[in-house]
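QA checklist item 7 of 12: single-chain prediction sanity check.
[x] sequence parsed
[x] length recorded as 258
[x] structure emitted
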Amino acid sequence: MNGDLKTKAIRIAKALTEPRQISGLSSETEPLSLEQAYSIANRVRALMDRRPVGRKVGFTNRAIWPVYGVYQPIWGVVHSESLFSAVQPVKLSDYAEPRIEPEIVIGLGKTPKKGMSKRQLAGCVDWVAPGFEIVQSIYPNWKFSVADSIAAQGLHGCLVIGEKIPATNEVLDGLASVPLELRRDEEKIDTGKGENALGGPIEVLAHLVSIVSAEEALQEGELVTTGTLTDARPVFAGETWSACFGGVMSEKLSVRFV
C-alpha cells in the first residue's frame, strides 16, 4: 500500500508542477480513505520541497457543499512560494482551472492547543487580514471526491493577503459579522459574510485544531486562511477582482490576473 501511495503522490506532484489535469485517484471500486489522502498530501509536499508558512481550510462554507459534492471541511498547507502580496499579479497559467475565493486570514501569535475554549483560541490570534485564495483543480471540470481534494493539496494554488489588522477584542468579536462584496472589474458578482465559514474564522480555527494530529499541530507564527465566504468563481487572464470587506475589517483587496 505504501508503494501505491508513493506512486499516487508522484502523479499529483507532477500534475501540480506542470500544471496539468489527471483523473481522480479515488473510485467506487478503489475508494481512498481520508487517512490515505492526507498521507499522500504529506508525500506530495515532501516531493515539492516547499517551506510551509500556514494552513488553508477548505469547504468551510456549507452553502457550496452540494455544488462540489464535498460535505466536510478539509485542510492543506500554504507555503512561502504560494504567498503573494496584493501588489503582485497572479499568473494563471501556473494553475489548473483556477478559481477565486475571498477569505478572512488569521495570523497566530500564540500556539493554539486542543481543548482550548473559543475565547482562548481567539487569544492566540495576533492579526487578521482580507485574503484571496486562488484554488485549482487538477481534476477536470472540478469533479472529485473529498479524498481527491485532500490529496491534491486541498486544491490550494496561492494566497493573496491584504493589509494586516491587529486582532483586538473588538475585531475578533466582529469577524463573523464582516460583510463583503466580490467584484470582477467593478461588476458586482457575489456577496458574503464572515459567518459563512463554519460560523466564523475562530470557529474554523477551533475545527482545525481539533482535527490535526499531534505531529501536524498548529504553531505560533503560522497563518490560517479560513475558507471562502462566497462560491469559488472562475478567473481569467486580463481580469482584476476585488473584495470590499466591511464591519471591523473595512478593507478593499484587489488582485490582477495575467
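[x] summary fact logged: The chain has seven helices and 13 strands.
[ ] second reviewer sign-off
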